[in-house]
Specification:
By secondary structure, the chain is an alpha+beta fold. It has helices at residues 51-54, 60-71, 78-91; strands spanning 25-31, 34-39.
Length: 92
Amino acid sequence: MHTEIRTTDAKARLVLPKSFANATVIIEELSDTELRVRRARVVAEDDLPFVEELASPLSDRDRDRFLDLLASPAEMAPALKKAAARHKARRG
C-alpha cells in the first residue's frame, strides 16, 4: 500500500492525485484521526438485480415439505424450550 501525506486548506479541502479526477469516492471515517478515501464502483440502478430474480424456486418436493411443516410444526426439542425460556426471562 502506498502512503502519501497531504495537507488540507483552510476549508478542509484535500487535493487528491489526478487518478481520482472525475471519480466518485467513498470516504470512510475509521477513527477520530484516520480517514480512508477510495474510488467507488458506480453501478447503474437498472443493472441492479431484484432479490426475487436471484432466488431459485423450490422443487415440488421441498415446497410440499415446507407447507407440511407449516401445517403441522414439529414438537420443540427440550434444548430449544430451555433456550426460549432463558431468552424470555432475560427479556423480561
